[in-house]
Fold:
Amino acid sequence: AVVSTQSTGKRNRHTIHSLHTPLFILVRNMSVLLVSSFKNSTFSSIRLVASCSSRFFSTSNSPFPPIPKEGNIPPTIKQRVGTNLHLKPNHPIKLIKDTIENHFHKTYIDPTNKKPVFSIYDQLLPEVSIQSNFDDLLFPDTHIGRSPNDTYYISDSKVLRTHTSAHQNELIQKGEKGFLVTGETFRRDTVDAFHFPIFHQMEGVRIFGREVLDKYPSSHIKDNGEHPVDYYYESTDYKTLPEVKYVENDLKTTLEGMIKTVFGDVQIRWSDSYFPFTSPSWEMEVLFNGEWLEILGCGVIHPSIIKRSQDKSSKVEAGSRGWAFGLGLERLAMVLFDIPDIRLFWSNDNRFLDQFKAPFELGKLKFKPYSKYPICFKDITFWIPADFHENKFYELVRNEAAELVESVQLIDKFTHPKTKRDSHCYRVNYRSMDRNLTNEEIDKIQQSVRKSS
Structure:
């Protein structure tokens, strides 16, 4: 028997159908079968019958699925690498980037040479080593971020960076005392209005030498990164060192000033957090339009990272400390400009781009929707194999539908009473930002999904 989805008006029910039922046809690879109807230019209830083939979900005895020798980057991602929306004139992501960079350049000037403290890096290549993306940032071997279900692997030694922190060690070892790194970052993720596998991140770092830190003598303990890595995540002695508290206060004061430049005079609160490469660590939230919004993560750079950089480079002073932060530019732009769907950032429609011409006044520039085309949805149900991961399914749909897929939602689960096998029912919502969709083109996408699964 195979599983289909039956719309009841309240929820989707899973029904077992005989293989001999004329309504359904068993496809050779048991991947997907679409039975659809189309009325009055809108999509009615859609039934899909599916079973996942072994070509789609790989099996492995390792903690994570195996990394294909040719990598796991689909063509839809490869063709976008290097688009660099953060460098595109009159683009909302660039407007946010420029605002933050201008704040740092105007506010922090080196008194010895009258130059900005923070150097700008915005064209560093996104292809980085696993060493710099994970190992040098103290990610445990079992960290979920290393899984190919979450990360795009170029090979078994290189990835598309998952964060701009991947350049942190390299720039510290160059002797940089302050820098901002902005660029494309890549992660396999859910499909909805707020997530996209390519996004733009800004990393900020500042390093303090002993000339500054010696003004805050440590009365009860000396520490230069000699302890085991885990020590610094928990040690109260380390976290209360006067020089660590100085770095913490400088970090929070700096970021509060930056955020108020972007959002205006908003209320800010801090909460403790965890990141492998900083300790102590925090997340910042702001009260904006009556809601508390998570804005960024940050912390004091882990002493082991500073120590390793010191051992590798004579340009890193012994006993240095520093802070780092990271924020998503799409997140800020969506909140500040009232942009409802992350796909809009990739639009070439002048009705979108012409709304973001500089100069502009933060707080007054708001996106004005120029269209609202109807949503089209189709439901798909399939048995779940042991090594199933939702990100693989999300990516399959994205590969075939590109920007036409608005969201993919898990709407129902079913466990067979005898075999105990599980099946999931997903609703795939399609909507173009620029035009009406037709039944014919969506049917073609579904056929492609079936063949790819």
